[in-house]
Amino acid sequence: MKELLDFYLLAFTSLFSMINPFSVMPVFVKYTSGYNLERTKRLARKGTLAAMIAMFIFALTGQMIFKFFNISLDSLRVVGGILFFINGFDMLQAKPVRTKDENEAIEDDEDVGVTPLGIPLLCGPGTITAVILMNQGASGLQMKGVLYFAIISTSLVVFLMLFGSKWILSKLGEAGTKVLFRIMGLIVMVIAVEYFFTGLRNLLRIA
Q: What is the pLDDT of residue 125?
């Protein structure tokens, strides 16, 4: 039981840190400027649902992708560690998320909910890599079930944060948001180092 709980906490922390809803909330507020509560809720639901489905797809198909491209898990750990470290460093600098659609009028909730909000803002390359790595490292049905539960629970938390993003940002203020950015960045960088050196150690051992 303790092993499953530890794995859940690792999975939830990793996914939440990689999604980093604190960096997405300012963009979401921009998208929903002038929206009523129902329309805001609908867009938050579509975005998080699209991200959750994408995470499930990559978790379930990760093994096939590995076999097709003849990629080892440790190679992905090394590359994923580098990718996570870069993302974490950007968060540590409190860099905001930007998209090419930032200055364009938002007219279609359906399009915005799936992309860019769901993919790639919520479920980007870092999140996809984390899901594949954790699914490959999960031994047995119980541990995989814990991972899938972590995906669902993380998505639920992200949905609630997006829906309440205007209120949350107003309470945090610019300084508070930057502090949380940096905390999330530090967590991601620690995860990155763990992934990188685990993969590198295993690769050197095989060689």
A: 87
Give the HSE-up count for residue 183: Cα atoms under 13 Å, Cβ half-sphere.
10
SS3 86: helix
Q: What is the pTM of this model?
A: 0.86
Confirm if 84 and 125 have CB atoms less than 8 A apart.
no
- Cβ partners under 8 Å of residue 106, min gap 6: 31, 112
Q: How many CA atoms lie within 13 A of 126 on its CB side?
A: 26
Q: Work out the percent of the chain whose per-residue pLDDT is above 90.
A: 53
HSE-up (13 A, CA, CB side) for residue 48: 26
| CB atoms inside a 10 Å sphere around CB 119 | 18
pLDDT per residue as tens digits for the range 40-70:
999 999 999 999 999 999 999 987 887 888 8
Domain ranges across the chain: 2-206
Read off φ and ψ for residue 21, nearest 5 degrees. -60, -25
DSSP element (H, E) containing 56: helix 37-69
